[in-house]
Each structure stands twice: as C-alpha cells, then as structure tokens.
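Researcher: I'd like a structural prediction for the single chain below. Treat it as a standalone chain; there are no partners to consider.
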Amino acid sequence: MNHRTNLGKLIISKNNNKYITYHKLKIILVNGNDNELYIRHNIHKLIINGNNNNIEISQAAKINQIIIKGNINKILSKYSLNISDFGKGNQIIIHKNEINIKEQDDEDNSLEIQPQRYVLNWENEIVDEENDEEEKEDESDINSGENNNNYFQLLEAINNINILIQNANIFINTTKEILQNNFNSKIDNILSNLINITFTNKNINNNNKNNSNEKCAICYENFSEGEQIKMTSCFHLYHFLCIKKWIQIKIELPDCPICRRKI
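Model: Treating it as a single chain, here is the predicted structure.
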C-alpha cells in the first residue's frame, strides 16, 4: 500500500508498508519494521528506530541528517550522507556501491567504509551533549507536528459540524414548507365545500325576516348588498375571511360557529 504524506512530519509505526513522500518534511521517524520508504523531496532529519527497513533516496532529495538506531536497515542514495549510526548490521549503498558497517565491539570502535572515495560525516554515539540536543530538537519537531495535526483535526470537526447544521436547517425549512402547504391545502378544501352566494335582501323572506341572516355571526357586521359571502350546509352566512380564520383555528374539527354542525 502506498501512503502519501503532506504534513510537517511522517511517523511510521506500522509494519510491512510502502511509503512515498510527495512534499518536503521536517522529520521522518521510522518506528516500524520491514517497511519501504521512497524519499522524493528534501528532509531535515531521518530517524530510524525500527529494523529491516529499506529506504531509497531519490536524486532530487536532500537529507540534512540521518540517525540509525535500529538494526539491519538498508539505505540507497545517490550522494554521500550525514549519518549517525548506533545500531548493528545496517547497510548504506551509494551509487550501488556498498558501505559495509562492521558490528562494533568494546575494543574497536572503528568503521570499515568502502569505497574510499565517498567521505561520510560520521558522528560518534559518545558525544552525549550533542545527542541530548538532537533528542530535544526531535521531541520539539514531533510535538509541533502533533499540534498541527490536532489543529487540522479541529478544523475538520468544525467543518463537519457546520455541514450538519446546514443540513438540519435545510431539513427544517423543507419540513415547514411541506406542513404549511398541507395546511393551506386542507383549508382550501374545506372552503371549497361551502356555498358561494351573492348577498341580497331579497334572499330573506320578508315574512320571516331574521336579523341574524343580515350579519356575519363571527364579526357581527352586516352584509352589504351584492357582497360575495359563504354559506354552510346548515344555511348560515359568513364573510369569506371570517369563516376562513375560523376554519384555521378549528382545522382539526371545523364546525359552524352558530349551530356547531360539522362543516
């Protein structure tokens, strides 16, 4: 599996994976084992703590310092490198010519380097003060990278929350619109069942003239001659807007305001 990197640091903790750098990195920390790492861009520092890792450095890449603390790792490069080697059995290949590193014993701390024309800048493990400074720098780089990761994760979480809020608002507005349309449709359906008439005093029997038929039972205002009004199936008369407001209030069980008969 190929893993692309674009952060300030790369920490390899898993085993048996292939990694390729696509951007400049401050630090690469290899803690896993049996991994393949192809470095394409400049790296400030490469620290290898794991074992049996194969690292190839492209011609365009430059690494300021490599620290190998693990064992039996293999590095392939086009140029000489600044390497601090504390492990055993590691192998550095430059231009496909091997530089063999003997296992150090207590009496002989020398390194056998082949071929002689390649000069490497070796740092000895005995220099404790310099190593302490390097470890502090490494920890600082790692902490800085972790802070950057936390920052990006926080931004991603905030963005996800904003997306959820936007989706919730869209759902609420859509639901409101649907309910309002259903509500208006129900009112219009009820109003359509009422009878449309044009009010005239001739519609009222002069012998049985009732003042209640001359005015709306909701607003108690008289009807005007020729006015368009609504009549229920129980023959009671209302202004259109008055009976509409009444139906809106009594939408669940609309009835006649006078006789309470279902509309």
